[in-house]
Amino acid sequence: MDTGWMRDSSGEFIDIHKDLLTYEQALSFFRMIEAEGSIKEYCNGGNAGGRWVFQIFNSEFVAELADVIRLSLIAVPSKGPVLEVMAGDGRLTEFLTPLVNREIIATDSKDGRYDIAYPKWVQKMEAHDSIEHHHPSFVIFSWEPFLSEAGLSVVRSGLPTAWIGNPERCGHADLFKRKYIKKQSRYALCRHDSFTDSKFVSDLYLFNCKEKWFS
Predict the structure, then answer these.
(1) How does pLDDT run across 138-147, given as a tens digit for each residue?
(2) Using the 8-state DSSP alphabet, how is residue 143 labeled?
(3) Are 60 and 66 spatial neighbours (Cβ–Cβ below 8 Å)?
(4) Residue pair 103/62 in contact by the 8 Å Cβ criterion
(5) pLDDT(112) > 80
(6) Which residue of 79, 89, 141, 168 is most buried, as measured by CB atoms within 10 A?
(7) Is the distance from CB of 189 to CB of 55 less than 8 angstroms?
(8) pLDDT tens digit sequence for 72-87
(9) Domains of the chain, with CATH numbers?
(10) What is the pLDDT of residues 162-212, one digit of tens each?
(11) What are phi and psi of 145, to 5 degrees?
C-alpha cells in the first residue's frame, strides 16, 4: 500500500482536514498513526496544519450529514440558516456548504480552551447567544465539551439538532434522557477510536427529528 501521501515533504503527517478524504483513506491514515503510537499528539495539533481534531471528517460522513440536513430542512418550514455552534475552526461548515442549499453559519466562543486557529469568518459567539441571534432552522454540535449544557438547552427549545460525538466523552448525560435517533453511521471516526481493532465510539445523533423524514 502506498503511504507516501500521508506525509508532507518534511516527513510530517499531513493535516487530515486540509482536504476531504474518503472514509477508506482516513481509516488507513489513522491506522498508520496508531501504529506509531501518536494519535493523541497528532489530534492535539501535531500535524502539518497544526490542526486540532476531534471528529475525523471524511467524504462519506459529510455527505451523510448533509443528507440529514437537507431532508430536515424540507420537513421544517423555517427559512432560517443552518447553524454550527462550538464550531472550532469551522472546517465542518466549509465541508458542508457545497452540499446544502442553505446558508451555514459557524460560531464559537473562542475561549482559548484549545490552541485552535480560528478563521475570522467563524463568529465569536456563545451557543445560546448565536441561537437567539440567528434563529436557525437546524443546529449542529460536534464534540460539545464534557458536561456542557448547551446542547441540552438547544434540544429543549425544539430545534432540529445533529449532535456528533461520544456521549461518554462529551456533552451532558441528561441530553440522552431525551428522545433521539442514533444514525449508527459506519463512517463516523474520531480521535478516541481503536483503528486497528475497528472499535469506533462516536456517532451522529439526531434530536427533534422524525424517522419518517429520512425514510
Answers:
(1) 999 999 999 9
(2) S
(3) no
(4) no
(5) no
(6) 141
(7) yes
(8) 999 998 999 999 999 9
(9) 59-213 (3.40.50.150)
(10) 999 999 999 999 999 999 999 999 999 999 999 999 999 999 999 999 999
(11) -55, 145
- Which residues in the chain belong to E strands, given as ranges? 82-85, 104-108, 123-124, 138-142, 161-165, 180-182, 203-207
SS3 content of the chain, % helix, strand, coil (to 5): 35, 20, 50
Residue with grid cell 437567539, as numbered in its chain: 132
Q: Which three cell numbers mark 124?
A: 465569536
Report the DSSP pairing between strands 82-85 and 104-108: parallel
Cα-Cα end-to-end distance for the chain:
38
The one-character DSSP state at 83 is E
Chain-centroid distance, C-alpha 7: 24
Residue 49: what residue type?
A: G
1 burial type by CB count under 10 A (0-12 exposed, 13-18 middle, 19+ buried): exposed
Which grid cell sits at 10?
A: 518534511
- At residue 159, what are phi and psi to the nearest 5 degrees? -70, 135
What average pLDDT is seen over the chain? 95
Cβ 184 vs Cβ 211: under 8 Å = no
User: How many Å apart are CA 23 and CA 186, to the nearest integer?
Assistant: 9
